[in-house]
Amino acid sequence: MAAAVATPLKFTFSSSHGSTRRLQWRNSQRSIKRPYRGVITAKVEHKPPPYSLEALEPHMSRETFEYHWGKHHRAYVDNLNKQIVGTELDTLPLEEIILATYNKGDLLPPFNNAAQVWNHEFFWESMKPGGGGQPSQAVLELIKRDFGSFEAFVTEFKAAAATQFGSGWAWLVYKANKLDVGNAVNPVPSEEHKKLVVVKSPNAINPLVYDYSVSKLYSPTRLITVFQLPLLTIDVWEHAYYLDFQNRRPDYISTFMEKLVSWDAVGLRLEAAKARAADRESKK
Ligand SMILES: [Fe+2]
Hints:
The protein is α+β, with helices and mostly antiparallel strands. Helices cover 39% and strands 10% of the residues. It binds fe (ii) ion.
């Protein structure tokens, strides 16, 4: 019987079932509740890449995958499951866990693990064997409109990935509305909506949190309609490239862009982003 005195953070949200609840996070000791009878508690999965671990060789080695997916990604999953078991979070989809624990930039303990699980799944799916080359016509047209040329986009994306100080991520994002960026560099909230932007983020932060708003997220519509949807990401944590490239991050970034990017995935994500933006506008 756990007797820890909770130190609840003042964070109120409505669940996906519409009832208003208070998310309580215990700062030190945590009493583990048994799941409510009849409530399915989802365990976050350690999803494999959509290809075999050696499929990206010689550009990304099997050894890198064995460490990066097999150990780092797995650790984020295992640690997240330990953190959320028995809490209000363990029945929520991963995206909602991320947004709830982002807590307006005052991160709750599960945030980093939750975001890193999502980021890595997204990263694996941002690559494919025989990747690189150029995007589909629909993606290419938007890139040319918003960056001037494909080459200019590549230059900006590479620069964002190379200049993210320390650990983090670089992203191509479809910006469907204003961004509320608390702890990420770029973009500017006053920019015109509905365009592609390149952003970089530190540590586990991802663009899902840029549009953060408790009132909009949890009531009355589901948060899925208010996401900023990323289209592409590159992991620039050192663990992503050190075995293959040692400290040569720019070489890793160039290889990613030229040999690994799945423009098919970007095209599908762009369609999804447009659909979400349209759905969101229809509910205003
Ligand atoms: Fe990573």
